Amino acid sequence: VIHSLPFPPRDPVFEAKRNSVSEAFEEVDLPYMLLRLRQGIGRLIRTSNDSGTVQILIDKDLSEQVKEKIVSILPVTL
Length: 78
Fold this sequence. Notes:
Number of domains: 1
Helix content: 40-55%
Number of helices: 3
Strand content: under 5%
Radius of gyration: 14 Å
Number of strands: 0
Mean pLDDT: 90
Low-confidence stretches: none
Structural class: mainly alpha
Shape: elongated
Largest sheet: none
């Protein structure tokens, strides 16, 4: 169960990255979160013989675009 999406922390390194781009969420936060989510799911399913269930608890106010990007990285379709 993933109870929160793994967005990057609010630290000086990521703040500098956010300040250097025009669309911080699209160019820094979202790619980082999707990468970390893929890595977490990859720890569950390592071979074609493995199976498991991933349940992601997300806020209702999360945009549809972000939800679509999350679904697009899942190893199976819903």
